[in-house]
């Protein structure tokens, strides 16, 4: 009995360890998402509108789920990346993805690098432009010399630290005295003037849909070092996605409980914004926690920057490889990383430290390209490129069509809003 129990316990521990070890691509996806969309968009939504947009954040995550899930599901079923699936659909589909991906890659790299630099200003008295350069150089060093293995390990630790810190801060905020000023009336987000903000918030909620292609390539990279079953791949993705969606609401709660109704609004300046963000935590966790919180927030955004550079570079490199019928090249991947970072730095210099306008521009751009990326993934998941049992069934097809309708409707509404404002 004792030996049987010991054997069962050892087997269970081994399975749990194997499952945790197989996890990685889904956690990396969550790290990419929690950067600007959560720390900035969700927190800002709570600070300006309270709880009013909580259901919108959850709805957006649900409606985008089929398009994000395509990365893990297709690769687990077909044993190849999403980009190879696009090429099977036709060369024009891969060209379309790669062309839009170049634009998104440069803009997103600029956005997260400036946000990281803004957080770093709390510790290093240098200009935000110079810090952005140091952030990009540090990210490239980690990726070129550490590769996927280092990124995988680093992200798990940072994600855990940020999640625990944020949950503690929100729990304390619920018990803190109300900061709402007497006579305060919450502004409604359902006004014509806020269409731009709503679209920006939904653009990177939970992340740009092209992240699904990153997830696909990360899964293939993970399989090089260990065996990952189809069930493990899907579980890893689902875990990362659910954590991402729930944390979006948690960050909204933090903005609502600590800032909404106080009369304070977020500054467009990167330096001042980072100070305000850290203050949200220190107000409820104590001023002595300021530097600890600042360091955790910085590491979170830094890991997002590293993840974004790695993910976009891998997809651009693979797109080039497939379109030119070339061979895998580590050197080409490194060149793509450097060029993308250089272009991102040029955009940062153009915006001159104006963080929120840059992030809003990037998020809106993400929303407008999301329609195309979502359609490509849906088309692939109902195609003959994968076995019948792995294609999307009736429920996922309905959810996908509802999601596409929502994306197209808001894209058209935003274009009309831009033309008439």
Automatic annotation (TrEMBL):
UniProt superkingdom: Bacteria
Coiled coil (residue ranges): none
Transmembrane domains' residue ranges: 20-41, 53-72, 93-118, 130-150, 157-180, 192-218, 239-259, 291-312, 333-351, 357-378, 398-419
Keyword terms: Membrane, Transmembrane, Transmembrane helix
Protein's name according to its UniProt entry: Manganese transporter, putative
Species per Swiss-Prot/TrEMBL record: Shewanella piezotolerans (strain WP3 / JCM 13877)
């Amino acid at each position: 009995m004792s030996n049987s129990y010991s054997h069962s316990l050892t087997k269970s521990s081994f399975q749990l360890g194997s499952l945790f070890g197989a996890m990685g691509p889904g956690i990396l996806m969550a790290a990419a998402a929690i950067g600007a969309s959560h720390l900035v968009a969700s927190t800002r939504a709570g600070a300006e509108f309270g709880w009013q947009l909580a259901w919108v954040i959850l709805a957006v995550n649900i409606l985008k789920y089929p398009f994000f899930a395509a990365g893990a599901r297709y690769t687990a079923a077909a044993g190849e990346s999403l980009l190879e699936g696009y090429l099977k659909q036709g060369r024009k589909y891969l060209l379309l993805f790669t062309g839009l991906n170049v634009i998104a890659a440069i803009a997103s790299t600029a956005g997260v690098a400036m946000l990281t630099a803004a957080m770093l200003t709390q510790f290093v008295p240098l200009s935000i432009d110079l810090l952005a350069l140091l952030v990009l150089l540090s990210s490239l060093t980690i990726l070129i010399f550490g590769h996927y293995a280092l990124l995988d390990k680093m992200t798990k630790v940072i994600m855990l630290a940020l999640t625990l810190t944020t949950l503690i801060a929100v729990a304390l905020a619920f018990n803190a005295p109300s900061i709402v000023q007497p006579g305060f009336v919450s502004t409604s987000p359902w006004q014509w003037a806020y269409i731009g903000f709503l679209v920006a918030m939904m653009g990177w909620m939970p992340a740009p849909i092209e992240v699904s292609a990153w997830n696909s390539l990360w899964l293939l990279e993970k399989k090089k070092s260990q065996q990952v079953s189809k069930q493990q791949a899907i579980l890893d993705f689902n875990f990362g996605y659910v954590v991402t969606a729930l944390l979006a609401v948690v960050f909204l709660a933090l903005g609502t409980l600590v800032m909404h109704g106080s009369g304070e609004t977020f500054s467009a300046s990167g330096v001042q914004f980072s100070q305000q963000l850290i203050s949200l935590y220190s107000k409820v966790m104590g001023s002595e926690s300021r530097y600890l919180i600042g360091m955790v927030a910085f590491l979170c955004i830094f890991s997002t920057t590293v993840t974004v550079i790695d993910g976009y570079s891998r997809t651009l490199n693979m797109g080039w490889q497939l379109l030119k019928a070339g061979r895998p090249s580590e050197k080409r991947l490194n060149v793509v990383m450097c060029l993308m970072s250089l272009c991102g730095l040029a955009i940062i210099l153009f915006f001159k430290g104006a963080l929120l306008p840059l992030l809003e521009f990037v998020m809106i751009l993400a929303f407008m390209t999301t329609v195309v990326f979502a359609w490509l993934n849906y088309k692939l998941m109902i195609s003959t490129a994968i076995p019948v049992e792995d294609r999307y069934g009736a429920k996922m097809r309905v959810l996908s069509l509802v999601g596409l309708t929502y994306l197209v409707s808001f894209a058209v509404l935003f274009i009309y809003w831009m033309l008439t404002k």
